[in-house]
Known about the structure:
Largest sheet: 5 strands, parallel
CATH architecture of the largest domain: 3-Layer(aba) Sandwich
CATH class of the largest domain: Alpha Beta
CATH superfamily of the largest domain: HUPs
Number of strands: 5
Structural class: alpha/beta
Helix content: 40-55%
Strand order of the largest sheet: 3-2-1-4-5
Number of domains: 2
CATH topology of the largest domain: Rossmann fold
Strand content: 5-15%
Amino acid sequence: MVDRPPVIAAWGAGVDSTAMIVELATRGEPIDMVLFADPGAEKSATYAFIPVFRAWMSERGIASEIVRYQPRNFKHWPPYAGIAENMLTNATLPSVVFGGGSCSQKWKAAPQDAWTAKWEPARRCWDAGGRVVKLIGYDASGRDTQRYHHAVGCEDPRYAYRYPLREWEWSRADCEARIARAGLPVPPKSSCYFCGSIKPDEVLELSTEELRIIVLMEARAKPRLRNVEGLWRKPVLGRRGATPRPGSITEFIRERGLLSPAEVDRIIETAPLALLDFQAAQAALLPEQRVPMGRWLDDFHRASNALAKDHHHGTEIPANSAPNRH
């Protein structure tokens, strides 16, 4: 990194940013660090792809790190980690559902910036009055063009942003083809599995555990919802070529039989109350004695798996079955 600022690639583990890194590496352009910010709720297929591509980068001498936002102030709540546990703790849905901004600043940009602030090459660059080059994988599609125009007007004294895919005028299809030519599997679209922007065909590919959390999240938030039905806000009727869908992903899961009707009903009727009981019990404990939210979710999935197995073998399931409430 002599006589030039350090270069960081913001990697989302999706198609665009992966193709950007592949092409830059092939061209011999410098990448000093690749950062992936893990919100703790990417699709399971994304988590399967991450070690594959990190190994590919390592073989080419490209350093990478996984960073995470670390919640600290839990007030009277049990400790939580990741955006899903955050939503369940607060009985809400991601801000994009209510017409707000995306969750990327808190769960993606902020942890990358916090890591970079401690990175010696960046500190030396800033001390010398320079700016770290940050590579962003916005492609030339209409959606990313909107994001680009919003971002390009934001000046940052610490970073000089570069958008290689836009320099090359690459579409998403170009990115997919580039990844395939490198002999790598094409990753799925990167997003949280319960993002309000997820498409119906993406929901069809989710795991059973991810589907259960969606049902629980919508059921937990429902008493506080006023103008939206669920993670998809409002129904889409299917006009002008749009794919029809309900406003609630839970209803889509039910309609498509992705979980059994009995399991959907059981989660809605029992899990939110069991979670409230768990939170109340933890609030009565000293902070250092509280059981993390993740432990409750482990019990939730374990109980759900056992009940699904019993149902498959014809055993009657009690209507009030719920995970361990500690």
